[in-house]
Amino acid sequence: MYSEHNPCGYPKGISKLKTPFTICIFSFLAITITWAEEPVDLDMVNKIRDEGFNRSEVMESLRVLADEIGPRLTASPGMRAASKWSVEQLQAWGVKNVYLESFDFGRGWSTTRSEIHMTSPRQTQLYGLPVEWHPGTDGVVEGEIVYAPISSEEDFAEWEGKLLDKMVLIDEVGPPHEADTRNVTSYDDEMLDERVSFNVPVGERPPRDVWAKDMQYRHALSAFLAKEGAQVLVRKSSSDAMVIQMVGYQYHIGMTPEIPAVVLAAEHYKRLSRLADNDHVVRLSVDVDAAFHDDDPLGYSTIAEIAGQGRNPEIVMAGAHIDSHAPGDGAADNASGVAVVMEAMRILTALDVQPKRTIRIGLWSGEELEFYGSGEHVRRNFGSYPKKTDDMYKYVGDYEAADLSKPFAKERDYDKFSVYLNLDNGAGKIRGIYTEGNAAARPIFESWLVPFHDLDATYVTLNRTRSTDHESFQLIGLPGYQFIQDRNSGAGRGHNQIDLYDEIYEKDLKQASVIMASFLYHAAMRDERMPRKPEPVPILE
């Protein structure tokens, strides 16, 4: 809608730029666009688009990670294979200074087979998968189910003495509802306007210890079920339409659960509970092959660089997490992001760019568990907080245990750091970028997006987003950003068995690759490092 205060008709709170030719915003001089004094090298953009669209290897990278390697749970054999392949592939493209960076983690885990059947009151196969970091069954185990809704330690007393040799269903069934069967969400303008219009913070700041308390409860639940002699823990998928959403987080050495656990499709889980409610004796047989891998308690991220010019160049970074959960092949979450970041590096290497700043990528492991890989890189190179020592924080990693009531300590490269760009929001094409409240970054990103308006990348928002590796950088006041992406089944619906290669679109990954390469190039070449918000100050919690 046009107004005299908003002559271009953009929704309040956002930047939505539709064409590079609008007189409201841009003027052209030779091959340089200038908006708010921010130049864009269109000659290099043309080269990046040509290389990225016409000689792309992004889908081949995705195919290897998703089809050939498959699930990449941190510290698992699949993750080890992915690390080895990523180093070899980057080196084959001519990328220099490629290496693995380790971090303390815990136990590796993998599964190869699971069979779950209802044997009474009738025989039928059930659709389910084993929960990560739970042991296998060591052959077929059989038992009667008990529907025992448990959501807190206060519920334990009700079920004491009632779970011996039982298959324990602990998740509430909930009321009937219409199933959500959507696999893909492509944002239209109205949806994006709503998503990126600035959300003014209201109310109290949520506490940071929610995750630590949840992990403490998970361990208490596992100990209770083992003490009561339960045979198998049975969970309900949080997704519908036979999609099995499954995660496990109890990976610390000496803290992994003692009894097997499976997640059933919601529809099959509900059937079991209805049969039990109607006075049927419901029995299951469960056979799960699972293995722990304790030969190496470390996780590994892949780091690679294009060296900057001069003796002590500043640093720009991009990243995506290479680990995944176990149900599917981790194609959308996040082999697609890894393939894009690797492809951006391949493009810039093929063009033989000579950047002012070092261009560094991180293919992070341990993201699904709590930003382990990116957090370790930030701690080693840029800075960190001291850790809380309360007992419940032994169940979480350094990010959640960071004591924000204390000052953080800077490392050697804190002042050399310019910007970090992350890709981990669903494998769809890039539609824009979150600026995490950094108003000074907004006009810069707006200018960098202009050459990609024809590819539907037009939005810049001051909103923040969560749950990706950019938070490791933001935690200590460094500019870390996540792109806005269309969503698809792999990341949009959760960690599930349909997160496969066929859910990903080639044109979307090519689009994302050229935008990532262009952003990295322009960040590496601009006169000044990227602007920062004020440094964090201690917060009384």
What does this entry look like structurally?
This protein has helices at residues 42-54, 58-69, 77-92, 156-159, 189-196, 210-228, 266-277, 331-350, 367-370, 372-381, 398-401, 442-449, 470-474, 489-492, 506-525; strands spanning 14-16, 27-29, 32-35, 38-41, 96-104, 108-120, 124-126, 128-130, 141-147, 167-169, 232-236, 261-264, 283-293, 298-306, 315-321, 358-364, 383-384, 409-410, 417-422, 430-434, 459-461, 480-485. With 541 residues, it is an alpha/beta fold. The chain has two domains: 55-105 and 297-439 and 456-525, Aminopeptidase (3-Layer(aba) Sandwich), CATH 3.40.630.10; 108-199 and 207-293, Glucose Oxidase, domain 1. Strand 20, helix 12 and strand 21 (459-461) form a beta-alpha-beta unit. The longest helix is centred in the middle third of the chain and has 20 residues, at 331-350.
Q: From the 3D structure, determine the CATH topology of the largest domain.
A: Aminopeptidase
CATH fourth-tier homologous superfamily of the largest domain: Zn peptidases
Q: What is the CATH first-level class name of the largest domain?
A: Alpha Beta
Q: Please state the average pLDDT score.
A: 90
Count of extended strands: 22
Q: In what order do the strands lie side by side in the largest sheet?
A: 1-21-20-22-19-15-16-14-5
- Can you give the helix content as a percent range? 25-40%
Show unreliable segments.
1-14, 18-35
Give the CA-CA distance, first to last residue.
Answer: 43 Å
For the CA atoms, what is the radius of gyration?
Answer: 25 Å
User: What does the largest sheet look like?
Assistant: 9 strands, mixed
* Distinct helical segment count: 15
Global structural class: alpha/beta
In one word, what is the shape? globular
Structural domain count: 2
- Beta-strand portion reads 15-25%
CATH-derived architecture of the largest domain: 3-Layer(aba) Sandwich
